[in-house]
Amino acid sequence: MAVVSGDELLAAFDDDGTSLGALPRSEVHRLGHWHEVFHCLVIAHRNGEPFAILQRRSATKRAFPGLLDLSAAGHILADETIADGVRELHEELGITPAIDDLVSLGTFRIADSDPGSEGNNREVVHAFLFLDDRPLAAYAPDHVELDGVAEIALSDLVAIFTEPGALAEVTELPIAGQQRTFVATSGDLVPDVDGYWPSLLAAAMTALVSLKPSD
Questions:
Q1: 178 CB-side CA count, 13 A
Q2: Where are the domains of the chain?
Q3: Assigned CATH class of 9-209
Q4: Cα-atom radius of gyration of the chain, to the nearest Å?
């Protein structure tokens, strides 16, 4: 077993969900074992309209460098619970909600090729929604993991993944640079895998309806 120095241990599972024990992250990815991850989509309301907060992945990242991605995401380690994944919001965006502040969007399975490895990246995704109206400037993005934060109308983000050739206006605040607005296409975002983006966004929109106070 080739173990990378400082490798994280992940709880690995086979196709039937049978536990394979705690294995180094590099091995889990190389062998294509299922493992758990935490995803969170932050939604901010701007003039009553929901906007998705996205992160700009660092240009130095091995996987999908420089692309826009979900607000926060990360592996759940072998000795952690799903609730421990909330730490990703602090580590990546500098915000500190409690797990009880988040709304579950369900569990998804996605599998794609893992750039730089010999196997597949097969993830059991525990997805959450967090309502937070703070402006982009109030985030403190990690300078190693991220190159900035951005926001896009949720309806426009849905269109990008459901309507061929859709364009959307994005406002971005880079870590190094001034706030800017640009027109994005699907090529500006981490690619969809197994219909995950549309499914996640549909779940988020349903949750927003249920969270809306009744008149």
A1: 2
A2: 9-209
A3: alpha beta
A4: 17
pTM exceeds 0.85: yes
pLDDT tens, position by position, 147-204: 999 999 999 999 999 999 999 999 999 998 899 999 999 999 999 999 999 999 999 9
Q: List beta partners, residue 131.
A: 43
Q: Nearest CA to 81 among 135, 114, 24, 38?
A: 38
Contacts of 59 (CB under 8 A, 6+ apart): 65, 66, 147
Q: How far, in Å, CA of 99 to CA of 11, rounded? A: 21
